[in-house]
Amino acid sequence: MESIVGEIREINRYPVKSFAGERLETCVIEPYGMLGDRFCAFYDESKEGWWRYFTARNNPKMLTYQAQFINGEIHVRASDGRTFGWDEHLLEEIQSQTKTRITMSSIKASHPQPEHPQLLSVDGASILLITDASLKKLEAAWGHSLDQRRFRGNFVIALSDESLFEGDWIGRQLSIGDVQLQVDSFCERCMVITMDPDSQERDPKLLKKLNQEFELHFGVYASVVKTGEIRIGDKVELMD
């Protein structure tokens, strides 16, 4: 038995970790996650594990670069209109903004896919879901309008009943369009959400409010059970 809990309001793809992403009307879900999502990242080779990733925590200006995934290739536009591919010119651009020596991941043009099958550059999970109800609750607590881009969710779900809570989906499956997802865990947030995605201005109060209201949990991670396509307006059904 299935029950409709909402519908897909927004689809977001972030081809490069910590760069701005792109809004989509439809997307393809592969076994590892969304096609073209978090395919690329920058690294600090002096570090290991999660801390190896060079992100907006290290250089907030990275948020000003917009990445798109087009026909298997990464296209990047800087805030001043300059354009880059995923190549040495972009590496030089980001390297010029930090004293940390960085490198970049590679893409096999013949078969584009994430460099890491376990998607460590998506915080160790495949797909990130957030809901309009949680956004509204946090917005009310913070006292300011809240841009969903701070949370970099792949899908924003408009709930059919705002009393529903996405945390209750953990351990269960969702059916969306052709796709089935397994909801695995909460997403625990860090200071990156305190940065305005346009101005990079920080407000630490947002993280404090998130801790008070949600114990730093905002959104849920899901893995792929069945591949297919998801479109704006697709119903989100909770499966028993």
Q: What is the secondary structure topology, with strand pairs?
A:
Elements: E1 2-13, E2 22-24, E3 26-30, E4 33-34, E5 42-44, E6 53-54, E7 66-70, E8 73-77, E9 83-85, H1 88-95, E10 102-104, E11 127-131, H2 132-142, E12 155-159, E13 173-176, E14 179-188, H3 205-214, E15 217-226, E16 228-231, E17 235-239
Parallel strand pairs: 11-12
Antiparallel strand pairs: 1-2, 1-12, 1-17, 3-4, 3-16, 5-6, 5-10, 7-8, 8-9, 11-15, 13-14, 13-17, 14-15
Helix pairs in contact: 2-3
Overall helicity: 10-25%
Query: In this structure, how is the largest beta sheet organized?
Result: 7 strands, mixed, barrel
Structural class by sheet pairing and helices: mainly beta
The coarse silhouette is globular
The name of the CATH superfamily reads: PK beta-barrel domain-like
Structurally, the number of domains stands at 1
Radius of gyration: 18 Å
| Beta-strand proportion | 35-45%
Q: Assembly type of the shown chains?
A: single chain
CATH class: Mainly Beta
* Number of helical regions: 3
Protein name: Sulfurase
Pfam families: MOSC, MOSC_N
GO molecular function: catalytic activity; molybdenum ion binding; pyridoxal phosphate binding
InterPro entries: MoCF_Sase_C, MOCOS_middle, MOSC_domain, Pyrv_Knase-like_insert_dom_sf
Short structural summary:
With 240 residues, the protein is mostly beta strands.
Describe the structure.
- The chain is mainly β and 240 residues long.
- It has one domain (2-239): Beta Barrel (M1 Pyruvate Kinase, Domain 3).
- 12% of the residues lie in helices and 36% in strands.
- The protein is built from three helices and 17 strands.
- The chain has helices at residues 88-95, 132-142, 205-214; strands at residues 2-13, 22-24, 26-30, 33-34, 42-44, 53-54, 66-70, 73-77, 83-85, 102-104, 127-131, 155-159, 173-176, 179-188, 217-226, 228-231, 235-239.
- The strands form four sheets. It has a seven-stranded mixed barrel with strand order 1-12-11-15-14-13-17. It has a three-stranded antiparallel beta sheet with strand order 4-3-16, with no helix packed on it. A three-stranded antiparallel beta sheet has the order 6-5-10, with no helix packed on it.
- β7 and β8 form a beta hairpin.
- The longest helix is centred in the middle third of the chain and has 11 residues, at 132-142.
- The radius of gyration is 18 Å and the shape is globular.
- The model has no long low-confidence stretch (mean pLDDT 90).
